[in-house]
Design brief:
It contains 13 helices and nine strands.
Length: 359
Amino acid sequence: MPFARDSADASRSRSHSDKHSPDGKSLSAPDDGAIIDRAMSTHPLTLDMGAPSPDQPATIKERPIPPFTRARIAVVRSFLMLWVQAFGLSGLYALGRGFGTLEYFVDYNRRRRVRRKVTSLFKDRFSPALQSKITWRYFMRIRCDKMFYTIMDRIPRQQLMSRIKLIGGEKLDEALAGGNGTYVALCHFGSHLIAGMMMALLGYDIGGVRDPKESHVRRYIQQKYRESFPEVAKMKLFYATSFPRQIYRHLRANGLVASLLDVDRIRGDNTKTHPVDFLGEKREFLVGPVQMALRCGSPIFQGFVVSRRNFYYQLIVSDKLIDPKEVADETAALGNVMQHYADGVADFARRYPDHLMRI
């Protein structure tokens, strides 16, 4: 993990592209191109990994998904759907919790890694007994979210939509009405993959930054989503190693871009980061997407995903991290935004410690 209501987005896109000078000539295309080229030449950015070349292809050729992997996932999807038909989604949720509990007791090495991660993040905030409970709940939540993510395209739309609650969506609509796009900073707490799919189904045109080394399973599921949902097929996914020009254009076209900034490791020497205080430690978080949003005049928000019982999800949009119209000094503004973002992630992590990801 752009958001924009279909009808409203079409209207805003038309109004944005139909600006004319007094002599009747269109202004939008050359203005946007000039802004993008000037920003890119003056302030080259790197999203995640090493800095790419400007002549790098816009898309990266994806690895083919092995036939055995396709067959294996198809079998799992069929089994899960049979379970849903027999016991409903609540029955599938119970299955996920049971399977997650079994994994918790059997997978000792993974359980130890999760405990170590909880301890490294929260130090002595939780007692050993509570750390064990958080670890157990992590196993159950991850397994339930994975099961739901695997078959979301097979669930009736009305039943699926009833499980989504968007909190703060009016803030996004108001920001998009400004015509300069919007950026949402997500984090590695909560199921942001499910959030992206659900935002598309809610009528938002969403674009996000993806890892070019995504697993075969994830790419197979995303392909099924695109085949089942026209809204998901319209989603724009930008590779983390791609040249940022695509994202600049997307924001300038009044789109919404979402990505994660709280990385655990820096994967390229040229990656732009900014130091922050996070849960009592000094960390380096990605800053490139925030710089792009500021230079495009795009409002910046922070987003969170909360997994509830029986596959109900809350998608929470916070107040603005910053309004570019109020920025006088970009360097100072970046520091404030990044620390505000880190504080927001820390608060969410303390409230939902079992929503850890990428362990």
